[in-house]
Amino acid sequence: MDLLFHDILIIGGGLAGLRAAIEAKKAGRDVAILSKVHPLRSHSVAAQGGINAALGNAPAPVIDTWENHAFDTIKGSDYLADQDAVEVMCQEGIHRIIEMEHWGTLFSRTEEGKIAQRPFGGAGFPRACYAADRTGHNLLHALYEQVMGLQIPIYEEWYVLSLVIEDGRCVGVLALNFFQEETVPIYAKVLLLATGGYGRIYHRSTNAVINTGSGCFLAYQAGVPLEDMEFVQFHPTSLYGANILITEGARGEGGYLINAKGERFMERYAPHLMELGPRDIVARAIQTEINEGRGFEGEFVHLDLRHLGRAKIMDRLPGIRQIAMDFAGIDPILNPIPIQPAQHYSMGGIPTNRDGETPLPGLFAAGECACVSVHGANRLGGNSLLETVVFGARAGKKAAQKAEGGKSGTYHTLFQERLRAFKSELEKIFERKGKELAFQLRDEMKSLMTYQVGIFRKESDLWSAREKIKELKGRLLHVGVKQRGLAFNYEFIQFWELEGMLHLAEVIVEGALTRKESRGSHFRVDYPQRDDEHWLRHTLAFKTPEGVRLDYKEATITSYPPKERTY
Amino acid sequence: MMRRMKSSLLTLRIKRFHKEKIPQEWMETFQVGTRKGMNLLEALLRIQDEQDGTLSFRYSCRGAVCGSCAMKVNGELVLACRTHIEDLLEKSTLIEPLPYFPVIRDLIVDMSTFFNHYRKIEPTLHGQPISPQTEYKMNEDERKEIDPYIQCILCGICFGSCPAFEKDPQFIGPAMLAKAYRFLADPRDRRDEEILKAVNNQQGVWGCKTVFNCVKVCPKEVPPTHAIVKMRGKLLRDKLASIISRLLSLSQPTD
Fold this sequence. Notes:
The complex is a heterodimer. By secondary structure, chain A is α/β, with parallel strands linked by helices.
């Protein structure tokens, strides 16, 4: 058995993972990145509209400050965000964005040649720095270029199958090169998960096909709780049909939401901010219009950009024009875009402190798979990209400190043992003669999550979702993997990831069922009010042999006491 | 005469390759049910789910931004996710891996040469000195000069369509020359001479046959040939300027 070794191993090659790797490498550590796709294929590449920081570059009556940004973020979170973490993000975000610019990100510019900023939902200032509507693409390529410059090694198209824990400490992983047969043990003094979201447990999702939440499940399986998983963001505007994201920047540039009666209906839901209300409120408004019969074909409403004119659309929103033309055959210069809400982002995840440390020593997390928590019950648009670079860098820095010195390799026997145990587990899976088909279970789970654990939730739906997931977990034991061996085995990987997805679905349902209030993205039609007295606290879900066990912890309040949330 | 109805079944003839099999290569036909608005990537994923779990291809974003699913469809180089099946229903569709690259399995190709070429041009901004507190100032015209080239998603399609590789496999390739120009045109980068020197050879800008194949096939409308022509122009102007200055210095009376 060959045991590979790194000071720091980062799982995931999106923005958070790459940013962490750069920081750790610059601190002199032996760091490597492992990703199931080439880093440039990561879902960060699909982010469109912007990244927030109070640069104050856009003309406004008063100057923007990081405190304003923090307030907007906390109010947007429906007061569930940990305010100390939000303050860190909003302060350090300014430096991180300047740094990204210095590394080559091609931000759009103001007339004075500074980084351009546009209005975004739930924000009091034009604060979203943007590179046309391809901000994620620009940031990801710039970071990857830095990683190339630093010659950080990357295990491309590798999967992590299991974390290796010893004496209450994470010491590495069992990993798989998808093109080869052998499971490979990798020892790391620090392991950092930056695996992104789990959108693919929903039928309607803006997420990439690869977003299965595997990092969250690895941590959960290893005994780390998952925090606030019931808070699932539904993006108001996904392209009807393909559910590809249509950026909030389209509304930031002045786009209207119009129902089938021709009304700009947001005036009934957020009379001041209108289309630029926060995402939870706009998504509910659109879904209400559709549910009450004012949608088109009972399925969608229109996002109308025509009044912006050709020049502005070509300059500021070329990417979504391309998407609308490629995937719906519609040119937004000439016709409104049919849109509907779809799952978009996970506010919850692996709990971390402000330095990316999880409750399990040796294990760090950053980016969407982590819950710091800076988004609380609802994330503002433009804050997820910011979170990746701020907390990616912080986690990388802290990981580098933790990985300094220390012992580096009396683990040969341990890994050998774990590998043996893992292989016999695999044998059992391959020996199963099942009649169930993994893709059918997956599709049933996805429909269930979209239609019963979606934007509007109620007790009866959640109960039946709970039962259904239990049933699916049972049926999973009757899935046979026909193709033997691990190399190129999509069937096995999909089976393997499906198990994790079912567990995450279960955690979301348990949290949603138990949280008898409405806060941010979690809306209970049977408990439509926010209840600070009982529920101004974070959910923690632990994996037990009997299923999910829930616990709670206080949200951190610093300078912003909870208030009623109106827009 | 009866109007020919389009079938709702999609027929795909896929070129397979499994290194360990005998024979290693074969053609296989799949039929898959379709729905309105479906794209080719979805059809392939359906086949992988329902008919043959060994069918291998790359995928990620399914929105034409990640560059994973480049392949050859009826002789054209495309992203599968951006290809509508409505256009493929008339008769059976031939699917092959992206040309130029060695095949690893079915439609998965080995892109290591592609990324080796990418690293050769040192694609990392070498910034002019600046205070860490403030951004470089850049005007929108300068940004718009770079913008078309920065859209590249490194999918490899231009390599598959470029005839220059036939003459010289060491040709650095359209995407990389577009990338080199992206840094050359960037006022923040201090490497003008180095970049030009690196591409001033037969493996660089002079290897291009200026047939514009790459410009035609690029799914993101990146125009590598334009970058190549601009860099050639710059090199020629620099050369001319240096000849003139040498001539001028020769014609100066010496004492």
